Amino acid sequence: MLLSKNLLLLPALILGLTACGDKPKEVPAVDNPAKAADAAPAEDDHDNEVSIGTVEIGGAVVELAQGHGKMKAGDESHLVVKLPTNDGGATIVRAWVGTSDRTKSLVAKGTYAAIHDDYDVHADAPDPLPEGVQWWIEIEKPDGTKAVGSANPILE
Ligand SMILES: [Zn+2]
After folding, report:
1. CA 46 to ligand 1 centroid distance, Å
2. pTM of this prediction?
3. I need a surface site. Which of 14, 91, 99, 153 has the fewest CB within 10 A?
4. What is the CATH number of the domain that holds 146?
């Protein structure tokens, strides 16, 4: 009997704690372009990925698909990179939109998605799009070797 009376006091103590009612404010991703390109948006429509074919990178045939619809100048585009072998995310995949001169573009690092065994890269397209714009993909294997390939994006 005494024990149950003591337990009834607990909810009163918990209610005494101050509640934090304010929801966290959404911070615009544009504040830090480099960070925004590295991080995949939490909510994203990825049901409309369209294959843009395969490309050989460092002897490996890599499957590519583009998300976020057609690529537009200044907009973030999405590339899905599927390696021929399941490495469990040990490879580093980077991609950028533009020309082979990566210093003119924002290079984004891919996020490994274990469910699909592929890498998602979100990269901002330059504005204006350079002539002959391509997706450039860099594959860095766990042993440190790097290889680069490119593919034509789906443009407006
Ligand atoms: Zn996306």
Report:
1. 6
2. 0.71
3. 14
4. 2.60.40
